[in-house]
Amino acid sequence: MATGKTAALRVGSLALLAALAACGPTQKEPPLENFTAEEIYKRGEYELEVGNPRRPAEALRYFSEVERLYPYSEYAKRALIMEAFAQHKAKKYEDARSSAQRYLDTYPGSEDAAYAKYLLALSYYDQIDEVGRDQGLTFQALQALRAVIEEYPDSDYARSAALKFDLAFDHLASKEMEIGRFYLKKGHYTAAINRFRVVVEQYQTTTHTPEALMRLVECYLSLGLTDEAQTAGAILGHNFQSSPFYDDAYKRLKKMGLEPEAKGSSWLSAIYRQVIKGEWL
């Protein structure tokens, strides 16, 4: 059963909600100075919950007023993290980063610090656009996500950050593959090889590695570099034998009378030796 004090607070909160909700476009909102930090904060929460696309902006106004009117209160602390959340929801990503960082600077030991760090990372991650765009934000997202994983390893946010890290990492590999395919289609085999090599060496844990190896087989065969083509095929067969990309590479090699096997002393040969020793992938 609610105490008299609790009941009074609830009545006060309901009074605020009713008073503010009743204000039409021509009616003046009651001065927020007349209400407590809790009442103003709850109004901000309400604006986020009702689902109207314009509500995040309204919520932000109430949360910022909590900070202005009651700067040293517990609700001011809570309002700041909610500001970051509302700004992110409104896709004001730079503002969200700024608020999240301000929270971390002001309350570094808070129980919501992990969430603030995660929101900061998310503000980069959610800006990652289609593959063809500049990848600077992807690198920033990776750095920020790694910070969440390393600084708050036991939190739920670390687990979510790890999943998003893998997706962002895959995104970078996808960019290299897209450019490599473009060069390959134009017959610029050396330029294409450089891109596919980046995937094999730097993004080997992504989903794009099998195709990158198959494309290397294709490029090297086109250049008449059979040792490199065979070695790429051998790596592909050792790690991804069930992949359709291996079937394609194998057929290309067989058509030339070749087998997928390690030959020569190229960069691919070094990787093959690492594969055999279990040091790669």
Automatic annotation (TrEMBL):
One of its GO terms (biological process) is Gram-negative-bacterium-type cell outer membrane assembly. Residues 1-21 form the signal peptide. Keywords: Cell outer membrane, Lipoprotein, Membrane, Palmitate, Signal. It is a lipid-anchor. The keyword Membrane applies. It holds the Pfam family YfiO. Its main location: membrane. GO terms for cellular component: cell outer membrane. Belongs to the BamD family. This is Outer membrane protein assembly factor BamD. The lineage of its organism: Bacteria, Pseudomonadati, Pseudomonadota, Alphaproteobacteria, Rhodobacterales.
